[in-house]
Amino acid sequence: MVAGWFTQDGGEEDFRLLGTRCLACSSVFFPREDSHCRNPACAGGELAEVPLSKRGRVWSYTDGRYRPPAPYASDPDAPWEPYTLLAVELEAERMVVLGQAVPGVSVGDLAVGMEVEVVPGVLNEDGETAWTTWRWRPVGAAS
Asked: Average pLDDT of 51-59?
């Protein structure tokens, strides 16, 4: 999906979203920030890459039941697959990160406050390329 937003090496247990932390004020950013501190109260400082919490709690969720209109890029001839979207408050950072649930998890399987973990997922693939992303999976659910 976007280079540098998550780890690429290692197995599922090592998979993490990657953010940046300002060394001057300790603010953490995701998506990552590589040019300046976004905290308006900070004069700025060096930014360092940091792995974000692997777990968090469901803050909110919804389902996507329709194909988004243009300019969203999608093949109009391909069948539309509904998906579940979660807003997750990360355990240590206390920031909310959006992402899709793993396949097979619907809104009926979720509750606000439920613990979830980030895992690698496939956004799309063709015969030559698989585009990876992150997904949220309820803790204790099978892969």
From this structure: 97
For the sheet containing 28-29, what is the strand order?
28-29, 18-22, 47-51
Q: What is the DSSP letter of 6?
A: B
Whole-angstrom CA distances from 65 to 1, 69, 72, 80, 132 are: 22, 12, 15, 8, 22
* pLDDT, tens digit, 9 for 90 and up, residues 90-139: 999 999 999 999 999 999 999 999 999 999 998 777 888 878 899 999 99
Q: How far apart are CA 97 and CA 58, in angstroms?
A: 10
Say how far apart CA 60 and CA 114 lie, in whole Å: 10
Estimate to the nearest angstrom the gap between the alpha carbon of 19 and the chain centroid.
11
* 108 phi, psi to nearest 5 deg: -70, -15
Per-residue H/E/C for 11-37: CHHHCCEEEEEECCCCCEECCCCCCCC
Give the number of other Cβ atoms within 10 Å of residue 46's Cβ: 10
Q: Are 114 and 57 in contact (CB under 8 A)?
A: yes
The answer for residues whose C-beta is within 8 angstroms of residue 55's C-beta and 6 or more apart is: 90, 91, 115, 116, 117, 118, 139
pTM over 0.90: no
